Every structure is written in C-alpha cells, then in structure tokens.
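FORM 12-B: Structure-to-Sequence Request
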C-alpha cells in the first residue's frame, strides 16, 4: 500500500511540475507575441511621445488603473471606438492574489493594438507622483482614474484642476462601485466633495479588503462610456451626479452630489493653488496614508510552528486528519475561500474556541485515527494567522500551525491549488 501511495504522490508531483513548465512556456509565448505585435504596429506610426496627440479624437489617459476587469474593458472599448491616442499609466506588477483584476501596461497595450492597429498607445511604466503628473497628464484631453487609495485620488484630481482636464473617476470595493465625472464645465472636483480626507480606517484598498472582479469590470465599462461621450461631445456626462452600483441587489442608483465649492482650496474662486503648489504638496502627509503601502510581516512563531502551502498540500494528499481555520473577516471569506475550511475571524476567536475543539474531535473520528487531528490557520497576509496560532498555543491547542503565505502573493499561495469551482457556464454569442 505504501508503494502505491508513493507512486501516486510521485505522479502528481510530476504532473504539477509539467503544468508549471507549460504555464511558463505559454506565458513566454504570450510576451513574445505581444512584443511582435507592438513592434509591427509601432514601426510605421509611433515616433516619439512629443507627437502623442495627433489622433482624430481627443487623447485619453488611463491613470494607475489597478484593476484587470477595469483595464481590459475600459481600454479595449476606448481603443475600439476610434480614439486617436491612448495613454496608460501603471507601475504595479501582476501577482497571484490580483490576477482577477490586474493587467500590465504592455499586455494592455498589445490588447488595444490587436483591436485597433491605427491607435497610438503611450506606455508610462512609472508611478504617478507630483514630480511627473503635470508632464504626463498635460499630453491628454481626458483623464480616467481607477486608483484605489486616497493620496492618488486627491493628487490626480488636483492635477486635473490645475491643467483644466475633465476627470472620469471610478471606484470599486468588495461588491460595490461608484462613478462620477469631476472638473467638467464648472462641476465640482474631488476636493469639493471631500475637503478633508476621511480617516485612514475608512480608506480601504482592493489589495486589503478585496473586490469581486466583475464589479470593477462594470465600473470600468461605464468609465469607458463616459470618456467616449466626452470625446464625442454627445450625451449628458455624470458631472454633478454620482452613479452607485450594488452588485448583490443588481441595482444602479444615480444621486445628485454637491456642486463646485466656492471655498474649495483648489478650484474655489479665491484659490491660489497652481502648478508649483501642486509639485510641493505632500499628499501622503495630507491624507495620512501611503501611496504604495508595504504591510509589515510579523515573525511571532518559531519555524516549527509554521508550514508552507506546499507542505500543507502534501499532508492533504496523504489524508492527514486536520482542521483548517481561516481567520480573515467574514466578507473576505464570502468572496473566496478554501473548501472545507472553518471561518473564525480573529476578533471572535476567543468566543468560538469550542467550535474548534468540536471540529478537531469530528476530524479525528471521521479519519478513525488514534491520534488527534492537526490544526492549521490561514489569513490574508500571514500576520493575523500568527497571532491566532500564538493565542491558540496559550489556550492549549499545541498542534496549531500557521500556513505561510496562504493568501498572499508567492509560489506557496493556496488559491490555485485548492480553490475548486465546479460550476459550468456557457456563453452564446451567435
């Protein structure tokens, strides 16, 4: 029996290795194909960035778009409508935990050129900041903002006011989204609505609080529509109004927002805010929030109290009796979770210890083993799970172990291995 088990483990390991190699080769081919398309389309038409605004329609810039669904649909629809020039600003990288909402600049540019080979694509692979924002955004007539943090939103809005550019602003978080147009024909800017930054606890990012990929996809399509309307000078833009989208109830509401504030520090009647003020302004200090946060990684546990995702997978394959506790907040767990895991948010861990004891007993009885079932804990970044394991050890759960990097980026991430979606969907297009 042990020989058969070893053969199964070996074969599965070889299959996984071949899959990884196949994915690497396909990724390399995609990159080369994108480079080929880019070289072919740039050769006859793309000279220098100084000539980026020669298209028949107003050039459009998508600023720091951190969402795949937003990126793909917004950019492709704009490219397909015949805009002359499209700028893309993003310095982010694709990671395993954001594949459902992420697209790199070069991939986005290649996708747009595949749809419209005559379009000029300008790739800005750099972080937008006060030192380069004026130079970059001044090249375009319409700016689209899909950033997910307070300092970027204030900075982009202020820059658009200084340059006199309309701003199509969209946001998505969890299962909700919103959309409006700022600084358009006397309409309000972002600061008119929010003269004082909200508390940092109220400013959540997609990377921290999660987002269902469909939601930014819908908001992105609507952003593309607003940009096309402005470029074509048709319809009624969402200036002075805000679109609110609730994915759970499938409802869209349009609400009226306050108009331009005469006392606004940036666009008010007596404002002295100019390009030099913009360059000198510290948006991170103003919002008390960093542009690109790097969450701390705690080291609370000894190495023998932690295992990798690969080790956890091997233990499951070997049929080990265990209980997996996910200590992320409930709304994170509802968006995506590992099958058969037990969701006990860290804040309620103390009150729900009996549930863990009961689950461990059931796991032991189900496997029919004489020894106790093991206990593993995961979280979003690996910090809360360490805190949970530390507390569980103090409460007598000595077998509890933390899984390193379960939901965070990295090769040991569990999502691709254990997220099993059995639903089958067909899309009929003809």
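FORM 12-B RESPONSE
SEQUENCE OUT:
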């Amino acid at each position: 029996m042990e020989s058969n088990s070893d053969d199964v483990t070996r074969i599965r390991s070889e299959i996984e290795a071949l899959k990884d190699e196949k994915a690497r080769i396909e990724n390399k081919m995609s990159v080369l194909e994108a480079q080929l398309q880019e070289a072919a389309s740039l050769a006859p038409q793309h000279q220098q960035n100084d000539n980026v605004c020669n298209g028949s329609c107003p050039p459009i810039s998508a600023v720091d778009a951190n969402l795949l669904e937003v990126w793909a649909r917004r950019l492709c629809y704009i490219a397909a409508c015949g805009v002359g020039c499209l700028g893309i600003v993003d310095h982010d990288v694709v990671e395993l935990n954001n594949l459902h909402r992420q697209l790199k600049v070069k991939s986005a540019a290649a996708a747009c050129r595949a749809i419209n080979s005559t379009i000029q694509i300008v790739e800005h692979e750099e972080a937008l900041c006060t030192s380069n924002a004026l130079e970059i955004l001044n090249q375009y007539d319409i700016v689209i903002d899909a950033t997910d943090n307070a300092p970027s939103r204030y900075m982009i809005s202020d820059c658009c006011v200084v340059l006199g550019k309309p701003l199509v602003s969209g946001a998505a978080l969890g299962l909700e989204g919103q959309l409006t147009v700022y600084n358009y024909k006397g309409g309000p800017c972002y600061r008119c609505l929010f003269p004082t930054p909200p508390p940092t606890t109220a400013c959540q990012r997609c990377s921290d609080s999660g987002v269902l990929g469909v939601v930014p996809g819908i908001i992105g399509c609507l952003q593309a529509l607003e940009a096309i309307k402005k470029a074509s000078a048709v319809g009624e833009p969402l200036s002075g109004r805000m679109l609110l989208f609730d994915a759970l109830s499938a409802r869209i509401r349009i609400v009226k927002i306050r108009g331009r504030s005469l006392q606004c520090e940036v666009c008010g009647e007596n404002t002295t805010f100019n390009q030099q003020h913009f360059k000198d302004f510290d948006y991170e200090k103003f919002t008390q929030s960093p542009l690109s946060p790097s969450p701390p990684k705690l080291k609370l546990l000894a190495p023998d109290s932690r295992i990798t995702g690969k080790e956890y997978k091997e233990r499951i394959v070997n049929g080990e009796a265990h209980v997996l506790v996910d200590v992320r907040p409930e709304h994170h767990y509802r968006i995506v979770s590992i099958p058969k895991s037990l969701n006990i948010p860290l804040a309620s861990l103390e009150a729900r210890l009996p549930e863990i004891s009961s689950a461990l007993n059931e796991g032991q009885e189900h496997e029919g083993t004489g020894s106790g079932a093991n206990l593993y804990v995961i979280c979003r970044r690996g910090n809360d799970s360490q805190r949970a394991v530390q507390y569980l050890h103090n409460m007598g759960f000595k077998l509890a172990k933390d899984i390193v990097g379960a939901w965070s980026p990295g090769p040991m991430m569990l999502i691709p291995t254990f997220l099993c979606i059995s639903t089958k969907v067909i899309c009929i297009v003809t």
